[in-house]
């Protein structure tokens, strides 16, 4: 039996992932437009049997590059 976790992508690193205010469905995918109790990639895998092909790794520091570093006065 193959390990299912090898086929699940980390939604927390995807540009399409966002957190909702719904306590029953706290995770969502902006691209596919659905909310889930599990990470969206798990729902995609369960529904299609294949890895989420919409995964795009986000640049964590993209917003910080647009802003100058804070000035420290000391």
Largest sheet: 3 strands, antiparallel
Mean pLDDT across the residues is: 81
Proportion of residues in helical segments: 10-25%
* Domain module tally: 1
Global outline:
elongated
Question: Which keywords apply here?
Answer:
single chain, 74 residues, alpha+beta, 2 helices
How do the strands and helices of this protein lay out in sequence?
Blueprint: E1 17-19, E2 27-29, E3 34-36, H1 40-48, H2 62-66
Antiparallel strand pairs: 1-2, 2-3
Give a quick summary of the entry.
With 74 residues, this protein is α+β, with helices and mostly antiparallel strands. It has helices spanning 40-48, 62-66, and strands at 17-19, 27-29, 34-36.
Report on the structure:
The protein has 74 residues and is an alpha+beta fold. The protein has one domain. Helix content is 19%, strand content 12%. The chain contains two helices and three strands; from the N terminus they run βββαα. It has helices spanning 40-48, 62-66, and strands spanning 17-19, 27-29, 34-36. Strands 1-2-3 form a three-stranded antiparallel beta sheet, with no helix packed on it. The longest helix is centred in the middle third of the chain and has 9 residues, at 40-48. The mean pLDDT is 81.
């Amino acid at each position: 039996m193959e390990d299912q976790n090898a086929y699940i992508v980390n939604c927390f690193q995807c540009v399409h992932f966002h957190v909702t205010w719904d306590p029953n469905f706290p995770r969502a995918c902006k691209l596919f437009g659905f909310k889930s109790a599990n990470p969206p990639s798990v729902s995609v895998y369960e529904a299609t049997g294949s890895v989420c092909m919409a995964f795009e790794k986000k640049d964590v520091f993209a917003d910080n590059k647009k802003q100058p570093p804070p000035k420290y006065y000391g």
